Amino acid sequence: MKRRTGRRGVLAAVAGLAAIGMLLSGCGAGGGSNEATGAEEPASGFPNDYQGAYPMPSTDKAYNNPKSRDEVKDGGTLTLPTTYTPNWNVFSVDGNTAYMQSMAQFYMPSLYSLDLKGNITWNKDYIEKAELVSKDPQVVKFDINPKAKWNNGKDIDWTAFEATWKVSNGSNPDYNPPSTDGWDKIKSVTEGDNAKQAVVTFSQPWYPWEALFSSLYNPDATDPKVFTQGWNDNPHNEWGAGPFKVEKADQNQAVFVPNEKWWGDKPKLEKVTFKYMEDVASLNAFKNGEVDAVTFASNTSLQTVKDTKDIEIRLGYGKSTNVLVYNGKAGALKDQKVRQAITMGLDTKTWEKIHFQGLNWTPEAAGSELFPLFQEGYEDNRPEDVRAVNVDGAKKVLESDGYKLGDDGYYQKDGKTLSLRYTYFGDAATVTALAKGYQQMMKAIGVKIELDNRDNSKFSDTVTQGSYEILPMGWSSPSPYSQVNVSQLYGSDSPSNYTYVGSAEVDPVV
């Protein structure tokens, strides 16, 4: 499923081998050269004293500096900045953030890994075999590692697959999963030859079936009140099953240490700490050696950390697609023509210039909310009339809707100025510049924008409570199977449709 993020970066600075090993896709710089600039791409990353223009990365390479397990030294700690998310249940809509998922993967089951092309490798610590055994009806069997146990001592068996299905399929309205896609196509989950084999039978064919069971939910935590409220500021170690456990979790940080009950290879790191920080604080913490890696997407941020000793600068495409969310239940945004007009007034090229000023960074504007532009199958699905800014067209749309331009330069209807609230997060200079840039773009079409800046820690609550009108955020793709997320993003009744706009005509298709 798609996971929401705040607006985050596409560059990364890392210090120390431990951080290099832990940073996943979107980081690093591989060998070769860039024809446009002639810049060389080092095998691991650019040193801090690099003086040339940073090249645009290739869209078909992962700059993640892969190492075999034997090449990674034992010991050491890793400290990373992140954004506070109160709900630890990644299976619920409230906990469905990329920030929480990055922590959950340390102490919760991760059933498989993916390479750059989306090929699956099942994690033998959990799944010894997963195969499609019948196409009509569609049936999949999972053979579970005999050693696999939850931290409370109970076996991870077929009931974990059953519990994961039941909390995710949407049949019980007391649960709040972020998406029911695929889960609602499962007819049953039963015991196979023994308790360590799960048999999943579909009511109708659904592909890719592998996209569903990327993790498992603990059968002891299926009480609806526990599911929706019981994970707030509580990671529940007893319901985990991973190489690490949570040693400490509060509203400042989360600390992970090796899990003595883990049955697989012993973790290399002695401790992993996630500190909740605002953007500027994370940059300063990196400079001071308080965190080992930081992500950013502006020249201002780059220059802040560039002179830090013993670091590498890595470039790469992230897995998130940034979007502007219009709350279709809020004020003037209930009007489809208002939403159309502000979309026509958005100058994406100017926004990119603001975002990447001072960098040799010229990515295409995202044309799909489902697929990142580097993925096979990507197409620019934006209507032609919004691919380029159209100020006059936007004004005509508003005027056709009964708005009249006032003496103050803003449109009015029924004596009320057309004013919208733009809510953004963090204290990074580029984020603020983008907000002010948006304000000026909308002023050009006669729409007044009120800027509403909030701490990064307020992101999750703001989104889930719908307390915004225009909201910049991102959707992260944890897998290459984004086509299965159409209903999650656009379905009228989807709890992850944060526009609150749907179509009875489109719903059956998605």
Category by helix and strand content: alpha+beta
CATH superfamily label of the largest domain: Periplasmic binding protein-like II
How far apart, in Å, are the first and last alpha carbons?
14 Å
Per DSSP, what share of the residues sits in E-state strands of 2 or more residues?
15-25%
Describe this structure in words.
This protein has 510 residues and is an alpha+beta fold. The protein has three domains: 3-106 and 232-315, D-Maltodextrin-Binding Protein, domain 2 (3-Layer(aba) Sandwich), CATH 3.40.190.10; 113-226, Dipeptide-binding Protein, domain 1, CATH 3.90.76; 320-490, Dipeptide-binding Protein, domain 3. The protein contains twelve helices and 22 strands. A four-stranded antiparallel β-sheet has the order 3-15-2-14. Strands 4-13-12-11 form a four-stranded mixed β-sheet. β9 (186-191) and β10 form a beta hairpin. α7 (336-344) runs antiparallel to α9 and α8 runs antiparallel to α10. 42% of the residues are buried.
